[in-house]
Amino acid sequence: MANFNLRKAEPKDVPDILRLIKELAKYEEMEDQVILTEKDLLEDGFGDHPFYHCVVADVPVEHQKVEGYSVIGFAMYYFTYDPWIGKLLYLEDFYVMREYRGFGIGSEILKTLSDTAVKNRCSSMHFIVAESNKASIDFYKRRGASDLSLQEGWRLFRIDKENLLKMSAEE
Amino acid sequence: MDFTIRAATLEDCKDISRMILELAEHEKVSDQIKITQRDLEQDGFSKNPFFHGIIAEVPEHLKSRDGHTKVGYSLYFYTYSSWKGRAVYMEDLYVMPEFRGKGIGQALMAKVSQLGLAAGCNQLNFTVLDWNKSSLDFYRKQGCWDVTSELGYHCMRCEGDALEHLAQGDL
Fold first, then answer.
1. For the N-acetyltransferase domain, which residue ranges apply (chain B) (predicted)?
2. Which among B97, B95, B54 is positioned nearest to B71, based on CA atoms?
């Protein structure tokens, strides 16, 4: 099965994007963490100032392995900034349904994203991977990615909404 | 200490550039800076900015030994979590050494939190180097948690030749 199509996501793809986000979260054993809704995705991705961009992979009807689904893979990304080297492309999510793996769809998505990064004069593509996800880490390392947490000691920190509110109230 | 926190303007880029270099020197990596003051002006203050800035300023009579009144800054931008939606990423947070311990860093971070919440964000993310004990302690006191430690997420990067090869589709 080599017949698939990569394209920019459209508003009509939002239900499939959310479905795939939840599938990927389930794969990472985090599905109860997804609170995003279709309404959020629509407003945040297809309004005047999108917070993210998306590419989707779809297959023609006759090649559907899972009934009813033609969108079988996606990548969500946005542009970030490093004051030392400039623009970067940040890969937020990247997923291909299990039934469609091994056909080069993932590689093709990554190629499209890298091309987008280069065309937008981004010096680098960044993303995070769970250290337990050995298959993905190998996939990325084979393509020349380096692990900044291991090599340079970078640790990702987060403040959640409750503490954000506390902090913003301190003057 | 008497200081104000305000949005950065084009005119602040000279001081932001100076302080970026100071921060890089503090992190012992100043030879990696490729971005110039002109790049900052274009990338931060054009129609579609890649980042936003806030500045901490002191009155003239409290200026630094070298005569600077702009004594701290933060650079941030909006990102997106496929689980939680809108997020704000704090790329840089810096206060000149002679002005530390007076609440300026906390005020800068409070401002980023306020702006993020106003934009509908649910979380604030940033990275810290694992050897930077004073920063790690400061952030933990603000209620931040270490995503790399707790969830095992590693920050990854694909750049330079690796990015070009990926864009060509080479493996």
1. 3-171
2. B95
